[in-house]
Q: What sequence folds into this?
């Protein structure tokens, strides 16, 4: 009898735990949302182009809990140059009522540096939501930048031993893959 009673109690506890896991434990995103993201970008197409670090912020609205549209600005830095993308962001959250929700994100726009060029970014990630209007996300992204033509000064020593300098134009390909983390409020 004790074994049966213990088995029934264990079964009830297991069913209640399973039922609690099925309830949505997070707030489904809706209305205004803001993002702040930090990432490390590794250039893959040009060995001469240095890796960068980036920071971006995006602000917009969720429609029906799955679709997000907004605008944003960012900054990617390294020692040789800085890039400032301005973009429209479209995001789709696949399972919006779970703690860990996969999502896809697409950014399209331009960047500003010494010159202006095209910018695009595609990311796949996981959004870790809370019961409040807050989430943390981790993502892997592929970023496209038009080639960057950058003017620089180069020093050299002439035949008489005098130091001279002249302007040279360098071409960088800052397109990269990145790993980013972010917060959503």
A:
């Amino acid at each position: 009898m004790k074994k049966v009673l213990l088995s029934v109690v264990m079964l009830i506890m297991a069913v209640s735990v399973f039922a609690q896991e099925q309830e949505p434990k997070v707030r489904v995103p809706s209305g205004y949302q803001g993002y702040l993201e930090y990432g490390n970008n590794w250039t893959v197409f040009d060995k001469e182009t240095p890796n960068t670090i980036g920071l971006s912020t995006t602000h917009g609205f969720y429609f029906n809990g799955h679709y997000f549209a907004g605008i944003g600005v960012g900054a990617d830095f390294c020692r040789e140059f800085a890039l400032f993308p301005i973009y429209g962001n479209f995001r789709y959250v696949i399972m919006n009522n779970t703690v860990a929700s996969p999502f896809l994100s697409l950014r399209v726009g331009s960047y500003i540096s010494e010159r202006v060029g095209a910018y695009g970014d595609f990311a796949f990630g996981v959004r870790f939501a809370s019961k409040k209007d807050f989430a943390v996300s981790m993502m892997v992204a592929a970023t496209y930048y038009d080639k960057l033509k950058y003017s620089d000064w180069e020093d050299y020593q002439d035949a008489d031993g005098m130091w001279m300098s002249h302007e040279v134009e360098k071409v960088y390909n800052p397109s990269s893959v990145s790993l980013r983390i972010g917060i959503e409020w």
Helices lie at 2-22. The chain has a mean pLDDT of 87. Residues 87 and 109 are 4 Å apart (CA to CA).
